[in-house]
Amino acid sequence: MSKISKSNKLENDEQIIAGIKSGSSIALDAIYELYYPSIAHMISQNNGSEDEAKDIFQEAVIVLYDKVSKGNFELSSKLKTYLYSICRRLWLKQLNRAGFGSVDIRGYEDSLPDNDDIERHQELDKKFDQMEHAMSLLGEPCKTILHDFYIQNHSMQEICEKFGYTNTDNAKTQKYKCLQRLKKLFFMQ
């Protein structure tokens, strides 16, 4: 079973799903804390109230709980993406029932992802996971060099000094080699 962090917060989607399976109230708290704000924003931006957002989100959580409890749930995207798509569909149905059916939903396209957006997000999530895995396989000093340069925005001079290279050209050469190794690891997956 997945571990729960010391602060009693679930750290990832798999832990939340495991928490739902075990009936943990911590899982429900995590779902609301992590995902409700974006749903409330989406609904409020599309003619909805706070109460409507709560109702829609509650329905989506019930759908999630039912699927997980029945054992026929397989998470193929981020949990946030999954809940967002359920809430979006429920909200559009509610707008339809409320007489907004003749409303041109193209006005909502900027704020509501369509199936292509969801698929694109799923693909990006998959690529980020692959990149994270490739970085974990990369090893030192490459991992730190690439992290310092691309994530921490350190200059080549700072990297040169940190790793004791004789000049920035040597540091650039090493960064290039590390990047090539990372690409190879990424595309081998």
Using brief descriptors, characterize the structure shown.
189 residues; Arc Repressor Mutant, subunit A; 2 domains
Q: Quick one: biggest sheet? A: none
Order of helices and strands: HHHHHHHH
- Average predicted local confidence, pLDDT: 79
- What separation lies between the terminal Cα atoms? 26 Å
Computed Rg: 22 Å
Shape: elongated
SS-based structural class? mainly alpha
Number of domains: 2
Q: What ranges have pLDDT less than 50 throughout 5 or more consecutive residues?
A: 1-7, 102-110
Q: Report the total helices.
A: 8
Number of strands: 0
Q: What is the percent of helical residues?
A: over 70%
Estimate what percentage of residues fall within beta strands. Answer: under 5%
Explained architecture:
It is a single chain. The chain has 189 residues and is mostly helical. The protein has helices spanning 13-21, 25-44, 50-70, 79-100, 115-138, 142-151, 156-163, 168-188. It has two domains: 1-113; 114-189, Arc Repressor Mutant, subunit A. The protein has eight helices and no strands.
